[in-house]
Design goal:
This protein is an alpha+beta fold. It has two domains: 76 residues, 434 Repressor (Amino-terminal Domain) (Orthogonal Bundle); 112 residues, Sandwich (Jelly Rolls). Helices cover 27% and strands 24% of the residues. α2 packs across α3.
Length: 201
């Protein structure tokens, strides 16, 4: 009985450590400070730091609050053993175990293809539903990024230049260049495979 109890606690500790690492990676990738998260969830900086290190407990209500600050769904942090083998972590991302971001206000969906967010390169698969655009204001991301249109058609504006991209077309953007994207198709998704220099996300 004692051995079984110890095993349960070990699994719980591993789970806390895994979630804490995901929070830290995503926070750093988005350029959000510990103090900014602490302020928004009404907790101390020390507590948030302990959560990232897997030391402090993390109630679902707090994880939900942190998820909102980081701009992800709480399911981003969920994991089941049959989704990813232990020896594949940090090396392989299986198709059915990708972490995703859904932007409910636009319908844009982004899938993380890289095993982590804090490496030198990050791969993202972005799906733009028909008629969807990245926003009224041009976006600026840190670092260099490049992409290839896997399917559909996409209108890309970089600074004062505009391009219409078709399947197989690729492009590159310097991080400080404002850019804007729109899927002008009335019935087809536009899917872009991105490669970004960290911290690009």
């Amino acid at each position: 009985m004692l051995q079984s109890t110890n095993s349960v606690f070990t699994d719980m500790d591993k789970n806390k450590a895994r979630i804490g690492l995901q929070i830290r990676d995503l926070r750093k990738a988005k350029g959000i400070t510990l103090s900014a998260i602490a302020e928004k969830i009404s907790r101390s900086v020390g507590y948030v730091s302990q959560v990232e290190r897997g030391v402090s407990s993390l109630p679902i209500s707090v994880l939900q609050a942190i998820s909102e600050v980081l701009g992800v769904q709480i399911t981003w942090f969920f994991h089941t053993e049959n989704q990813q083998k232990i020896d594949e972590i940090n090396y392989v991302v299986r198709h059915d175990s990708r972490r995703t971001l859904d932007f409910s206000d636009t319908g844009i969906r982004e899938e993380l293809l890289s095993p982590w967010l804090n490496g030198d390169l990050i791969m993202i698969l972005t799906t733009f539903p028909p008629g969807v655009e990245t926003g009224k204001e041009p976006r600026i991301r840190k670092g260099q990024e490049a992409g290839v249109l896997q399917s559909g058609e996409l209108e890309l504006t970089i600074g004062d230049k505009s391009f219409t991209l078709g399947k197989g077309d690729s492009f590159s953007i310097v991080g400080d260049e404002p850019h804007f994207m729109k899927n002008s198709s009335p019935d087809k998704d536009a899917v872009v495979l991105w490669v970004m220099g960290s911290p690009g996300y």
